Amino acid sequence: MDLIISLVINGLATGMLIFLLASGLTLIFGLMHVLNFAHGGLFVWGAYAGVFSYAYSGSFIVGIIVAILTGLVFGFITEKLIITPVYGNLVQQILITLGFMLVLQEMIKVVFGPNVVAVKVPELLAGSWQLGDIIIIKYRIFIIFFGFIIFGLLHYMLTRTKIGLIVRAGVMNSDMVQALGINIKRIFLVVFMTGSALAALAGMLFAPYSGAIYAELGMEFAIMAFIVVVIGGMGSFQGSLFAAILVGLAGSFMAYYVPYLSLAVNMIIMVVVLIFRPQGLFTTAKG
Amino acid sequence: MMTSLLKLDNVNTHIGQYHILQGVHFEAKEGEVSVLLGRNGAGKTTTLKTIIGLTPASGGSVTFLNQDITKKATYDIANLGIGYVPEDQGIFGDLTVEENIKVAMRKETDESKEKLEYVLNLFPDLKKFWKKAGGNLSGGQKQMLAMSRAFVNDSRLLLIDEPSKGLAPIVIEKVMEAIVEMKKQTTIVLVEQNFIMASKIGDSFTLIDDGKTVRNGAMKELIEDDELKHKYLGIG
Lengths: 287, 236
Prior knowledge:
CATH architecture of one domain in chain B: 3-Layer(aba) Sandwich
CATH topology of one domain in chain B: Rossmann fold
Oligomer: heterodimer
Shape of chain B: globular
Shape of chain A: globular
Distance between the termini of chain B: 32 Å
Number of domains of chain A: 1
Largest sheet of chain B: 6 strands, mixed
Helix content of chain B: 25-40%
CATH class of chain A: Mainly Alpha
Protein name (chain A): ABC transporter permease
Strand order of the largest sheet of chain A: 1-4
Radius of gyration of chain B: 17 Å
Largest sheet of chain A: 2 strands, antiparallel
Mean pLDDT of chain B: 91
CATH topology of chain A: ABC transporter involved in vitamin B12 uptake, BtuC
Low-confidence stretches of chain B: none
Structural class of chain B: alpha/beta
Subcellular location (chain A): Cell membrane
Distance between the termini of chain A: 46 Å
Structural class of chain A: mainly alpha
Number of strands of chain B: 10
GO molecular function (chain A): transmembrane transporter activity
Number of strands of chain A: 4
CATH class of one domain in chain B: Alpha Beta
Membrane topology (chain A): Multi-pass membrane protein
Strand content of chain A: under 5%
Strand content of chain B: 25-35%
Radius of gyration of chain A: 19 Å
Order of helices and strands of chain A: HHHHEEEHHHHEHHH
Helix content of chain A: over 70%
Number of helices of chain B: 10
CATH superfamily of one domain in chain B: P-loop containing nucleotide triphosphate hydrolases
Family (chain A): Belongs to the binding-protein-dependent transport system permease family. LivHM subfamily.
């Protein structure tokens, strides 16, 4: 039982990090029909900018704020310069965002250096609690709570605010939203910047979790996020949370019980979902 | 004499490589119901989409309230006071009736609340299913919601695409009554295949064939012209 609780905590923490990355990706795809392979680059930029600010200022909160701001700025630049010219053309989107992903990755090496950077867990969140035979690592609990708070905030924004209603409506029928007098391009930009900020935040939270960051990290996590988006259903925010937790838990349990399958488990889940429910587990109904 | 609210002059529209509209012209006069008629694929729906800017014109001009709107963005055109009810109704299926209306309401003023009250009285079913998802409404209820959504803002002109399509006769009656009621407050451009319905509520007509306007006039003229009806609508 102790082991199971530990594996669940590990799985939930990983799942929450993937969720932060995937939630932006799913909204961007759902609303804008844009496949953004550069999303992982924003993850790694958030990690580096946040970690260096954290090291410089000594404050983890400053690191989080800088990571979010980095995500917003890079999101703005990416949408305006990279995405806008290729709206409506999936092949061009894949090529240009993959290319931009590599540019972001190499820029990390130019700006921050090519070496792996070690990251410490902030003092307040370091260490663990011992409950009987169970050891609970504080930082993992922090990530789980933080992830649920972000989910709650996003859920509130999407369901209780006017802009959230517009985003949900836009995912279903963006032409109709425009015909109701709403500038959908402005909404696209807000969603893209929010998604980018979430990716950067995920990168910053991941850094102390893994203990080290490197430039190629973005691509590894972006693939995981894409798998989650496909499993949850393109455009479904709740689907992303469910799929991220599923992938996180499956990875955690498989790594312990069947280690040689742990890397393949996400792919296996995705293939099974695609066979039986190609639109994903949670899908957005059309009007 | 009634003033012209909307004017299309030699409008041409391309969709990809296809030249869909090849010279559409008509005027919608204030307070009237102008009906666009023609066979399937004649270009009626594209004409509405061109007016609202979803398939922008590649030639000619669209003028609304003496303002050239040919090259304007869809949201700018809508904000000038043009409401659009598409052929598939464009309901946001996951949103409730209330949320569908909220997305459409640009400002929550006393005037817009009054308009909302007005449409809810016109379509009491919407009040009944206020918290129900739009995707779960019947075809008729979706039509009512789509029309309410377009009407709830300060729309000087409503573009309604085939409101009777796929509806039971009793529901068509209701929709028709609602259009007659809405006409008291706004101008309407209607695309309609159902000639009986069109002839009952239309004041003027525009016949479109192969993307071109072939005849404009008062609805009365068309009702009396069996040859024209037979040639372009296959009836009479």
